[in-house]
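Hey, does this match?
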Amino acid sequence: MVTKQEEAVSRKIGRTIATKRRAAGFTQEQVAERLQIGNEAFSRIERGLVSPGIFKLYEMAEMFECGVETFLIEGSRRPTDQAGHLQQMLAKLSTSDRQMIVGIVETLSLRLGGKKSRGDS
């Protein structure tokens, strides 16, 4: 029997797969064909109704030109995984854009968390 937590993880992985597929410019049909599975089977993977096997994750990572860990990290609720994901995104930006994003995140964190900023001590 599949637990609610396992279902949630499958949905997150599926959403990440869908995002990466669209960013790489593939249709569901194209990916299904390359994975040698049916269109409906791939649709169920993207919807998180079934989990892809490890080998299929590796095939998709190669197809979408990303690391296989991307599918697991981007859907993770662990702060360290989320921080790693943010680090990967920030690394692609200019210094000024990174500073802007960090400022926005800090402002949101303070507002949502109700904590003082470093300069408010």
User: Anything to note?
Assistant: The chain has two domains: 4-73, 79-115. The two ends are 50 Å apart (CA to CA). The mean pLDDT is 87.
